[in-house]
Amino acid sequence: MPSDTLVQQLAFLREIDRLKSVIRQSPLLDGSRKENSAEHSWHLAMYGLLLREHASSGVDSERVIKMLLIHDIVEVDVGDTPLHGGSSPTMQAELEHKAACRLFGLLPEPQGSEFLELWQEFEEGDSEDARFAKALDRVQPLIANVLTGGGTWSDGRVDLIQVLEKYGPTIRRGSPVLWSACEAMVREHFARDRPPSRTGSA
Amino acid sequence: MPSDTLVQQLAFLREIDRLKSVIRQSPLLDGSRKENSAEHSWHLAMYGLLLREHASSGVDSERVIKMLLIHDIVEVDVGDTPLHGGSSPTMQAELEHKAACRLFGLLPEPQGSEFLELWQEFEEGDSEDARFAKALDRVQPLIANVLTGGGTWSDGRVDLIQVLEKYGPTIRRGSPVLWSACEAMVREHFARDRPPSRTGSA
What we know:
2 copies of one chain form a homodimer. Chain A has about 200 residues and is mostly helical. Chain A has one domain: Hypothetical protein af1432 (Orthogonal Bundle). Chain A is built from 10 helices and 2 strands. The first copy, chain A, has helices at about 5-15, 35-50, 60-70, 75-80, 90-105, 110-125, 130-145, 150-155, 160-175, 175-195, and strands spanning about 25, 35. In chain A, strands 1-2 form a two-stranded antiparallel sheet. In chain A, helix 2 crosses helix 7, helix 7 packs antiparallel against helix 9 (about 160-175) and helix 7 packs parallel to helix 10 (about 175-195). The N and C termini of chain A lie far apart (about 80 Å). Chains A and B meet through helix 1, helix 2, helix 3, helix 7 and helix 10 of A and helix 1, helix 2, helix 3, helix 7 and helix 10 of B.
């Protein structure tokens, strides 16, 4: 007979399997399909594992990886919110908070409260760890878009200025080094994809 | 101009995106499709994050999570090897080692060597951390099979004894508590699915 603690933990692990069916806007790098939030969370955790030396200040790598593993779990209840979407941020934040309370509430205490607090810390984005985690959560889809010839930027008709404004501040705050590399990629991407001038020689 | 270190790290993170296209035998819990190795790795890392109190001895949770995040990366080159498959273990181990050297070799040093060693530690399964990580790598698909009415056991016509032999030793070594819970689930599953006796009253 398993303990109540284990029964609750296994119920949570069962519930979050549904994150594998939440589809994001970002494509896989081979362009074959869109990414789901579970595999995105794995990829982000790998970013966290490898890139901590580029954080703007000392971060606790273990906490960053934990945040990245759990940051999208609320999407089990509320789905993915595209970065270039038009939903109300306040209403979205309320829905996500309710989802976090329900989902992490499946866990035994104090584990449930610990994860809820860690998720809130990520959402608020004020701590050093949360800033770096949030930066990575922008870097990964930015790179996916660049490597797939535009990705969600093509679909949504997003231009260079919008990309710099949507991704820049969050990435720069967590890692100036990563933003420097990302900005160069983005500028090169939009320079390459700019239609040829109509006053050219052709 | 990003540093050589960052260029190498980003090349590795690009390469491992392909893990999202490696399809395993285990189903999602809603039965809609088979799981891929990237989302499996995320789910396993969540198992590691939540269940460390059930390890047979003290484990370093951060190392266990790292192992679980990287344990299947070799599949980018060699694909998934089903537990109930018939491939030669020696040949498979050689192919996986070659893949690990190529993939982790994309990383700057000493990061590449650190990850290769961590992957080898998981494969050997001798340390406390590796035993627990290996146990979780069996627990997650076992539960998926039970919750989907058989999963890979139905496809492969695997019986109770085979399940106890294939999963039991690895899970018990890493966590007697988890094996106790898993064994009860498995016995109940096979008792429920056993065809009715031909000498019954019907």
